[in-house]
Amino acid sequence: MQELLELLKRKTEKLQLGGGLDKIQKHKEKGKLTAWERIFYLLDPEKPYTEIGKFAGEGLYEEHGGCPNAGVVIVLGYVQNRMCIVVANDATVKAGAWFPISAKKNLRAQEIAMENYLPIIYLVDSAGVYLPLQDEIFPDKEHFGRIFRNNAKLSAMGIPQIAAIMGPCVAGGAYLPIMSDYALIVEGTGSVFLAGSYLVRSSIGEVIDNETLGGAATHCEISGVTDNKYPNDEGCLDAIKNIVDKFGGKKADNFSRKPAIAPEYDPDFLVSYLPMDRLKPYDMRELLKAIVDQGSMEEYKRDYGKTILCTLARIDGWAVGIVANQREVVKAKKPGNTTEMQMGGVIYSDAADKAARFIMNCNQQKIPLVFLQDVTGFMVGSRSEQGGIIKDGAKMVNAMANSVVPKFTFIVGNSYGAGNYAMCGKAYDPRLIYAWPTANMAVMSGASAGKTLLQIQEAALKSKNIELNDEEKKEWLRKIEQQYNEQLSPYYAAGRMWVDGIIDPRETRKIISMGIEAANQQQLTDTYRVGVIQV
User: Fold this and answer.
1) Model pTM?
2) What PROSITE patterns does UniProt report for this protein, alphabetically (predicted)?
3) What is the chain's Cα-based Rg?
4) Could you report how far apart the first and last alpha carbons of the chain are, in Å?
5) Residue 86 backbone phi and psi in degrees, to 5
6) Residue 407 belongs to what H/E stretch?
7) What is the DSSP letter of 178?
């Protein structure tokens, strides 16, 4: 675990350098702060924050020189004691150009703002769409244009949006700040126009410089497109703080909170206890003792459906319902005074049935749900199929998918197949979803996939009267497992925004607390309905 955490630290430090030291130096020579400097100047010191979409773009676009952190930094944090989402273009990465993953990351920020009724602050410094990939970012529903649609929706919902134009803001990207409630601009560096001077000249023959075309003086004194101009980044960020300071409150009172009590175990226990061998059993209850408030756990149906642990608890004072995969091998009592050995991390019919009922209870009582995934999937085989594992799994998925209380998901270890779905994977709208460095995410493990694909390959070759010898089988298996294991990495998932980032396990408690506080800004009004439940 220490090695994994050290790797996480090194990768995080590299991300904070954006496009590299030379690009940072050129950026600062223009009198501009970096994306992270702008964010830290804006955020309340000594208050917690969490990054959204860290490692987005990891391993992508290598033929284009890469796009570290998707060229945009997004944090959930506090400005003037008000929880906000801050979106800051990193102009040291391809001049802040928008890659497909950049759009996906920005849409995620807006989604979080909408779900939780959080003000969103855009620190704009972008050259616009990355043209070589325009076909992957321009026209589709979840592409660049969706951001401006969300600007309009956020405004209609009454969610404050503040934009600071701190660099170029070109073409379609010009709509983002101007569709915000407040549009501020920095003199000398900020500019906003639908077409830059080169395009204007080639299109209509007009010769004009960018500053006159769309600089601070033009838009504050002539067009009225921007509200006010400021001499530098710091002055502009101070103005944002001043505006946020005046916002009226929107805090709801949906969820129970009491004074926080420290966990029974020190958070360092999370680092030392979890086995690195993904097949080795461990007790999930022990992990929870380093996350939840001491003495707050009240377990639901402890002696039934033991491969899923369901418990009420408090985290940093907030009431939560926890659904977690139990990794120990357990004994399950069956009719006729018999017992069955059940494998840890596997969802059996009784566990799915228990989890569905617990999830429904939490929705009835307005208790936020926390999912801790270390799941290899649902139990397979004739006994399980005849016992109705599919309908019991469907019942759990139905109960979870229709939840109206906020859900938060953490991938502790394995996250395979339909187990990912039932335990509230990304497709099921968790408010926040993070992976620990120990996470693995795929349809199945590399070993299982390798054996399955090898069997298919052998059958295909056998139909052609070709037999593989033992050495050829080993080589086939090695190649398949190598490719598959690369895709299991949490960085592979984070690079594609399947999770909101990879965290030190000790951050779990903080993120849950911040997530519930964010959710508590929006009144919970939806009625919980599950539709047709399989019985």
Assistant:
1) 0.93
2) COA_CT_CTER, COA_CT_NTER
3) 25
4) 42
5) -115, 130
6) strand 407-416
7) H
Which residues neighbour 259 within 8 Å (Cβ) at sequence distance 6 or greater? Answer: 317
Dihedral over alpha carbons 31, 90, 63, 26 (to 10 degrees): 10
Residue at 477: amino acid letter: L
Mapped onto helix, strand or coil, the DSSP state of residue 394 is helix
Question: What average pLDDT values come out for the chain (535 residues) when binned by 10 residues?
Answer: 96 94 95 97 97 97 96 97 97 94 97 96 92 88 90 95 93 83 96 82 86 90 94 98 91 90 97 89 97 98 96 98 96 85 92 96 97 91 80 93 97 94 96 97 76 80 83 82 84 97 98 97 89 79
- Closest-CA residue to 271 (of 257, 287, 259, 282): 287
Amino acid identity of 208?
A: I
> What is the C-alpha to C-alpha distance for residues 171 and 72, in angstroms, rounded to an integer?
18
Query: What's the full length of the chain, in residues?
Result: 535
Closest CA to 484 of 444, 426, 436: 444
> How many other C-beta atoms can be found within 10 angstroms of the C-beta atom of residue 522?
19
Which of 510, 448, 447, 505 has its CA nearest to residue 284?
Answer: 505
Residue pair 504/373 in contact by the 8 Å Cβ criterion: no
* Non-local CB neighbours of 436 within 8 Å, separated by 6+ positions: 274, 410, 411, 412, 413, 490, 502, 503, 505, 508
Question: Using an 8 Å Cβ cutoff, are 355 and 310 in contact?
Answer: yes
Structure tokens at 455: 């069997």
In degrees and rounded to multiples of 5, residue 156 shows phi and psi of -65, -30
Contact by Cβ (8 Å): 136, 129: no
Token output for 54: 């860290």
Tokens representing residue 386 in the block: 């005849």
Handedness of CA 127, 132, 136, 141 (dihedral sign): positive
- Could you please report the per-residue DSSP string of 374-386? EE-EE--SHHHHH
**Residues 245, 250, 251, 252: what is their CA dihedral angle, to the nearest 10 degrees?**
180
534 burial level (CB within 10 Å; 0-12, 13-18, 19+): middle
Strands (E), 18-119: 50-51, 72-79, 82-89
* Residue 441 neighbours by CB distance under 10 Å: 22
- CA atoms within 13 Å, Cβ hemisphere of 198: 2
